[in-house]
Amino acid sequence: MTSDHYDVIVIGSGPGGASLAHRLAPTGKRILMLERGDYLPRSLINLDAKAVFVDAIYQAKDTWYGKDGREFHPGLHYYVGGNSKVYGAALFRLRERDFGVLQHADGLSPAWPLGYDTFEPYYCQAEALFHVHGQRGEDPNEPRSSKPFVYPPVSHEPRIQELSDNLAKEGLHPFHLPMGVLLDEKNGKVTPTSPCFRYDAFDGFPCPFNGKADAQVICVDPTLAAHGNFTLLTDAYVSKLETSLSGRSISRVLVTREGQEEQYSADIVVVACGALSSALLLLRSANERHPKGLANGSDQVGRNYMRHNMSVVMAIMKEPNPTVFQKTLGVSDYYFGAPDWAYPLGLIQMCGKTHAAEIRGEELPEWLEWLPNMPFEKMAEHSMDFWLQSEDLPRPENRISYDGDRVVLDIHEGNLEAATRLKQRLKHMLNATGAHPVLLDRRLYLGKDIPIGGTSHQAGTARFGTNPASSVLDLDCKAHELDNLYVTDASFFPSIGAVNPTLTIIANALRVADRIKERLGA
Q1: Are 324 and 155 in contact (CB under 8 A)?
Q2: Structural domains in the chain, sorted by start
C-alpha cells in the first residue's frame, strides 16, 4: 500500500481545486492533486453533437436515484478539469444584491455571511486568470468593479449584432457575455495564432484545441509545467477520509487507483469534488467521532442543494441564422423583476447553436405538432438558441444522501413561476423586434434531462457561516469540526443567484488559498 505525506492534498481538479492549487504551487509547498478521472481525450469526435449530447460519451456512467426511486445518470464529467471541460465558459460575477437577502415569490434567498466587497478583488483576479472577455458598463446589473476586463468582449456575428441592436431599440440593455475563452480577435476576425477560432462546437462540447479557458488548460497543466512540487494523480478515487482519534483532523486520505489501495496524508486537505460529490465524500467518511459524516454535526452536509431553474429554448426564426459562435449576448433587464412582477426573474443568455443531431435526440412529438414538415437540418438552420436560468432557493429537503450504497438526490421543485415568466419575457422581447419565432424547449442538454440530472450548476451542500449549528464551514471555508479540512467548490454557497456559478467558485478558491498560505507561513 502506497503512503506519502504532503503539505496540501487537493481532491478534485475542477475550477475550485485547480485554482487553489495554481495559487499555492509557487510557495514551494508539496501539493498532491487527486483526480478520479483521467485526461479527456483530444479527438475530433469532441466536435460531434450526436456523440457529445445524444450518446453522452463523456458523461459519468454512475446510476443515481431520485426520491421516487427513478434511476438517472447525473450530468457529471470525471476528467482533469472536472465539469469545466464541457462548460459554456460564461463567467459572471454574482450581482451585489445577490449577497444580501432577496425576497422571491416562493421565499427568501438568504444573505451571505460575507459581502461583495470581500470577493470583489478576487473576482478581478479570477477574470484575469481565466481570460474573461467582456465590456464593463453594458450589463445594467453588473456589480461595481475595481478593474476593467483584461480581455476585450467577444464580437457578435451579424445576426446577433442585429438582435442586440433591435433589443436596444426596444429599451433593453443587451450586453456581451463575459466569456472565458483563449480567443484573439482583430477587427472582429480571429487572428492566425488564436487557440480558439469561433467554431460551432463550443458550448457544452470539450474543446479538442484547448481554446476554452477550463481548469485543466488554465491551471492544472501550467502548474504541472512550472512547479516540480505539484503532483497530479489521475484515476485516483478517494473512497474515504479518516480522522485522528480525537476526530479533529484528517489523518489519512484513502485512495483506489489502478485497482490498488493507497493512502496519503497532508497537513491540510482540500475537498473540491463538486458540490454533490464533495458531500458524498464527507457522508461516506462517517466514523465514531462523526457518526453522521465528516463535519456534519449540524446535519447540513448534503442539504440545501441548488442547481438553478434552467431551460434551453430554441427559437425557430423566419429567416436562417448562419451564426457560428452564437454564445456572445446576454440580457439581465429582468434579473431583479419586471414591470408586471415584483420578484426576481433571472438571466437570459445565448447558448451554443443547435445541431440537427441534437434535435433528432429530443422527444419530438410535441415539436412535430408545431412544425410537421420541417426537416431537422432546416430547423437547426433557422434556430436561435437561448439559455434561461432563474434562482433556485435553498431548501433543507433538497439534498444528496446515501441509502445504503445507493446515491439518492432528493429535489423538491420551487420558484418555478419566475422561470415561467422569464420564458414569457423572452417571447415578448423577440416578438417586439418583429421576429415572432416559434419557441421550443430543448430538454436534452449534455446528454441529460435537465430537471433531475442537470447538475452542471451544482451548489450549496456544505454552506459556510458563523454558526456551527446551521452551517458546515466557517468563513474561510474550513470545516467547523475539523482543523485541517477545507472545501472550495460551490458547496459553500448559501444561495446561488441566477448567474453561472463558476467565476464565484474560482474567486473563492483564490481567497481560501490566500488563507491557507498564511496558515502555512508561505
Answers
A1: no
A2: 2-264+276-520 (3.50.50.60)
Report the C-alpha gap between 396 and 461 in whole angstroms.
9
Residue 44 is given by DSSP the state: G
Taking Cα atoms as reference points, which of 461, 472, 457 lies closest to residue 504?
457
Q: How far, in whole angstroms, is CA 420 from its chain's centroid?
A: 22
pTM value?
A: 0.95
d(CA 55, CA 296): 38
Gap between the Cα atoms of 133 and 148, Å rounded: 10
Return d(Cα 179, Cα 203) in angstroms, integer: 11
Measured distance CA(282)–CA(189) in Å, rounded: 48
The mean-pLDDT minimum among 145-149, 299-303, 372-376, 463-467 falls in: 372-376
Beta strand segments in 334-391, E: 347-350, 383-390
Cα separation values, 109 from 238, 418, 483, Å: 33, 13, 30
- The strand ranges marked E within 54-182 are 64-66, 71-72, 102-104, 107-109, 132-133, 175-176, 179-180
Given the C-alpha cell 457529471, which residue does it identify?
A: 76
CA distances from 301 to 401, 404, 432 (A): 9, 17, 46
Report yes or no: 422 and 441 within 8 Å, Cβ to Cβ.
Answer: no
**Mean pLDDT calculated for residue range 454-480:** 94
Hey, how many other C-beta atoms are within 10 angstroms of the C-beta on 106?
Answer: 17
